[in-house]
Design a protein that fits this description.
alpha+beta, globular, two-stranded antiparallel ribbon
């Protein structure tokens, strides 16, 4: 598992566990993801990034 925070990727390493707390909405969204989907991102309400900018960030 890797997690991206801002522009920094973090991954599980020996002695460096990662935990993610999911809301009920997150759990529903993830449960309904396509089997081929490998990324799930959350953005704050009012995030000034456009949809294309958000997709570009997710692909980076």
């Amino acid at each position: 598992m890797r997690i991206k925070i801002a522009d920094t990727w973090h991954e599980v390493k020996l002695g460096t566990p990662i935990m993610i707390e999911l809301s009920q909405a997150d759990r529903r969204n993830i449960a309904n993801m396509a089997p081929t989907a490998t990324k799930y991102a959350c953005f704050a309400d009012g995030e000034p990034m456009s949809v294309d900018q958000k997709r570009d960030w997710m692909d980076g």
